[in-house]
Design a protein that fits this description.
- The protein has helices spanning 15-32, 36-56, 106-114; strands at residues 4-12, 64-72, 76-82, 116-123, 126-133.
- It has 137 residues and is α+β, with helices and mostly antiparallel strands.
- The protein starts with a strand and ends with a strand.
Amino acid sequence: MTGVCNRAATLAVEASAVGAACELARAFAADAGLGDATGARLCIIVEELVTNLVEHTGLTATDGLTLVLGSDGREVTLTLTDTGPPFDPRVSPPPGKLPPERGGGAGLAMVQAWAHVESYVRAGGINRLALRLTPGS
């Protein structure tokens, strides 16, 4: 990692948000000097979280989500804010209890394996999920 780097975007909750969020994550990974493996994991985590918001929350393009990525040179932080229904990934159903045609929760399992959930808070109808990744771990 090269050092301090921050990127943020507010996106409409629609199919194009997934691609836009992934592009933000790729640009951030390059700017932060994350390396191929950590950059790929970050992109997959962002893709899974935003895809879940787009496909499973009932939110529409008039609703927004905010994605903030940061690096202090040692760790990467990811904060996702949205107005969807409450969802704390730490207490979600384990993989295999979800429809297998939708991956059976495999994406969320990757998020949980590759990142540490620092916090999940719902206040005033807004969800705020904060994760931390340590490159190389």
